[in-house]
Amino acid sequence: MLAVEKHYAVIGDPIQHSLSPGMHNAGYRSLGVDAEYSRFQVEARRLAGAVEGLRALGFSGWNVTLPHKESIIPLLDTLTPQAKRAGAVNTVKIHERQLIGHNTDGDGFVRSVEEDLKGFKGKKAVLLGAGGASKGIALALAEQGMQLHILNRTPEKAMELVQVIQHEGGRATSGTFAPGDWLEDADLLVQTTSVGLYNEPFPFSLAGISKQALVVDIIFNPIETIFLQEAKKLGCRTQNGIGMLLYQGALAWEFWLGGKAPVAEMRQALKNQLLQRTVYKG
Length: 282
Ligand code: ATR
What we know:
six-stranded mixed beta sheet, binds 2'-monophosphoadenosine-5'-diphosphate, Rossmann fold, 9 helices
């Protein structure tokens, strides 16, 4: 049997629920790319060994997820501007024996809302949460010229993130989850915390939000969080986290293989996997 020409993977811990292998392999099949994408559970203490192993086995690149997005950096040879900006890596490519760290999370988010928002410059985005996910999204939106308001349970963390954005030349302010007029003129509202993963409501009212706002929750399982259900009831357009997952994967594909990723097939593969999961759960 002929060996597959290129090998890719995702490493993380836990990893068994990753939807990336299904998404990338469906993409390879649809375009006839001779490649295979696997997933590997890698404990934090084994990261250096795993990176050496992937290199020795001839992998062309891999995705990196929690908890390795920051700790992999010292193991790499160079970082792209996106990885430097985020201080985190979600995609690695081997090019001329060099390990290049890249980050497609923030730009993946930007691509996922681009069509709906129709332009970013001068528009207002409100972000709920100030963790790693929020940072990647915030920096990418600020680079597109959006004005940001970052709200977090722990206000100091939102203030720190605002400083990082300002340092990069972006415009941002911070606050807590208290109602304010920022809801009335938000063009985009993004929920980046883990609240909602277990069908719990977000501790914050959306009353008064502009109907023009696009509301995004980066959670994709459940498919529609209570937060998104409330936004929909108030007349807003909504998106779950599938778009961000899809486009971070599409950008990783393009970084590795060049050309355009087959986003329609990749999106369908994500949806199929999520539907199967819902059925299994009963
Ligand atoms: P990630 O990398 O997924 O963003 P993280 O860096 O641990 O994860 O950040 C988690 C985010 O979810 C933070 O903004 C956190 O708020 P705090 O900074 O106050 O901890 C937020 N978060 C988690 N649980 C929350 C809760 N029950 N209510 C409100 N915010 C919560």
